[in-house]
Fold this protein.
Amino acid sequence: MAQLLRSELLDGIPHGFSTCDAEGVPELIPGARSVRLKQVHSARVVHVKEGDSWPHDARLEADAMVTRAPECVLAIVTADCAPVLLADRVVGVVGAAHAGWRGAHGGVLANTVAAMVELGAERGRIAAAIGPTIAQASYEVDEAFRTRFEEEDAAFFMSGRPGHYQFDLPAYVGASLKRAGVGRIDDLAQDTYTQPDRFHSFRRATHDGSPTEGRQFSLIGLPAGVA
């Protein structure tokens, strides 16, 4: 069974970021329903209501979910992109976001926080954890990639070999959460690329010529009686 890494900021809220140590993901909340999306690197957020469900072959196209429904587990998959789990434990609102560079640049994290606020959360009370993500030292990008970002984002790019940069996706995600008003942020600082025994990495698999379909799960939910 895969291990679930947890954040101290989300203590008391069922959650976890899976590794790829073994097959299968532990059950987060016994008997709870799990909700997944068709992730498309967008900024779209879905509000999951009590009783909402969709089958494997008809998932909604979006990259984040929020809910205050009990016994509902939000599940996203990643393999280098940043998985972000969020919670306002006071009112019982949780969220999960898949934040690759496109989604993060497009506003998926700001939209997730805004959707949580619509359900009663307060920005300053929200705690967010950034799970296993490709680190700056492992994430080389070219000049065309750099030009997609604004000048004020220069701090997230370190010069590399000629015509290339090293992009700090976890720091960019953290800054996006801060701009959205999130009060507390925890980066687990786990590089997916450099830990082949623990994490799937799309970029590493591409470089190695290995199969690229492997993914980690990131899960968060509310037990009965919280919402």
In short: The longest strand covers residues 72-78. The chain has a mean pLDDT of 93. The chain has one domain: 4-135+177-222.
